[in-house]
Specification:
The chain contains 7 helices and 11 strands. The chain is of the alpha+beta class. It has one domain (3-39, 47-245): Alpha-Beta Plaits, CATH 3.30.70. Strands 10-3-11 form a 3-stranded mixed β-sheet. A two-stranded antiparallel sheet has the order 1-2. Strand 6 (131-133) and strand 7 form a beta hairpin. The radius of gyration is 18 Å and the shape is globular. The termini are far apart.
Length: 247
């Protein structure tokens, strides 16, 4: 990786620019995203942010986590800046899925989003470095250098990424979006950098838990040690930052 690309990745989300914009393609303006940490306090590998989902407490008819994500990041029904020509072009930063045991007929409901892998396939295949993983484990897309090749979408085993087909206006500063780029769950990185929990967790604290997987004293680590947690497709060896109980 050349120094310019590496520098661009390190500086992504480094400063809040509420009024300024950056052109990434004809007719597309993306606002710089905020990183709430001071410049002298960089993101550290001492942290590994993660989410734990208790599927036993996840009701099949509840979409609170999805709605919260939409409202926070301005996509789906929470978006007022795009007109989709087809429902098939709707983004899905997080979606509810059902798992059915074909032998017993048992059905489970769970939210599925970017799993924020320690070894993310999306990063491996990205030709520009737009798909990247921060030192604290949060996987992101730098929209300013994403060329829309969609290799990352093909590489993701969780189908967690979306491609923006339609022109978008007035996208939110905390969640830049633009036609011709790929997007996915950011674990509400701006909120995390501002010492807040992701919107989905805040909306459903009974089923979702957020915390530092590297801190043995954190609530999420204590819960995982006590009651365990599974990875979806653990056989892939990706070491996901999102874990599930009850699957």
């Amino acid at each position: 990786m050349n120094n310019n690309t590496d520098k661009a990745r390190r500086n992504f989300m480094s400063k809040l620019v509420a009024a300024a914009g950056v052109a990434v393609a004809p007719g597309v303006i993306l606002h710089q995203v905020a990183q709430a940490k001071p410049a002298d306090q960089p993101v550290s590998s001492k942290n590994r942010w993660g989410i734990l989902v208790n599927t036993d407490k996840c009701a099949s008819n509840c979409n609170d986590c999805v709605t919260a994500c939409e409202n926070e990041n301005g996509w789906g029904s929470g978006s007022d800046n795009e007109q989709l020509s087809s429902p098939l072009q709707k983004s899905q930063w997080i979606r509810k899925v059902k798992l059915t045991d074909n032998q017993t007929g048992h059905v489970q409901s769970l939210p599925l989003m970017c799993q924020h892998c320690e070894n993310p396939p999306c990063v491996d295949v990205c030709p520009t470095g737009a798909s990247m993983k921060r030192a604290d484990g949060i996987v992101l897309v730098d929209k300013h250098i994403c060329i829309g090749c969609r290799y990352c979408m093909m590489a993701c085993p969780y189908k967690a990424r979306s491609f923006i087909h339609e022109e978008i206006h007035n996208q939110r500063v905390n969640a830049p979006r633009g036609i011709g780029t790929v997007e996915a769950c950011t674990m509400c990185v701006v909120r995390v950098d501002n010492d807040q929990t992701p919107a989905c967790v805040e909306a459903c604290e009974s089923a979702l838990m957020f915390g530092d997987l590297n801190d043995p004293g954190s609530r999420i680590s204590i819960e995982l040690k006590k009651n365990g947690g599974e990875q979806i497709r653990a056989d892939l060896g990706l070491n996901t930052g999102v874990r599930y109980q009850g699957i």
